[in-house]
Amino acid sequence: xxxLLAAEExxxxxxxxxxxxxxxxQIPGVLYGEGKPVEHLAVNAHQFSHxxxxxxLGKLIKLDIQKGKKTITxxxxxxxxxxxxxxxxxxxxxxxxxxxxxxxxxxxxxxxxGEDKRPRDGAILExxxxxxxxxxxxxxxxxxxxxxxxxxxxxxxxxxxxxxVPEEIRITSPADEVVVLASSPTVAVEPTSGGAANEPExxxxxxxxx
Length: 210
Prior knowledge:
This protein has 210 residues and is mainly β. The chain has helices at residues 15-23, 45-55, and strands spanning 3-9, 26-33, 36-44, 61-67, 70-83, 90-97, 104-113, 124-127, 131-136, 145-148, 157-159, 170-171, 178-183. Strands 1-3-2-6-5-4 form a six-stranded mixed beta barrel. A four-stranded mixed beta sheet has the order 10-7-9-12, with no helix packed on it. Strands 8-13-11 form a three-stranded antiparallel beta sheet, with no helix packed on it. It is elongated, with a radius of gyration of 27 Å.
């Protein structure tokens, strides 16, 4: 599915102009890559938020940039989104220009499958890595990397090198890194000091004198 996003060219602006853009429902951004000059853009905040919520931030986007009376189309990836530390709204976007015939490095989220088929051994599944770095052509970027845990035994883990992906995708994260663990559940134990001092005294029974 091709993702479309409209943008418009803007002049390089300072902090106050960026604030004004956001107040008018736009997000400032830049576009760079492929040896071309940096371009300053603005995108509609509502449209971008809808796209990000529905499809995530790791997919190839067809960016239609309005430059005066002309519209220029670029194939881009989102390199970085700067968010407000408290409100969480997007403050700035870095778009990275790509060529469809050149592989790119990108991070893709991990998704577990087969949890319902695991033995009922009480294991707790812990995801150690939530994203994997991959290398592939822009049009072949997957939504997520599927990790099958149906045969994962308690006390064992799945490493990067154990994950099977389509041949057109190459995982570049370190091969020996653990992605998911099946940990044994921990049981809280009441601390005791031991000894006879903790034994209850029976009322009405006099201890024998030595």
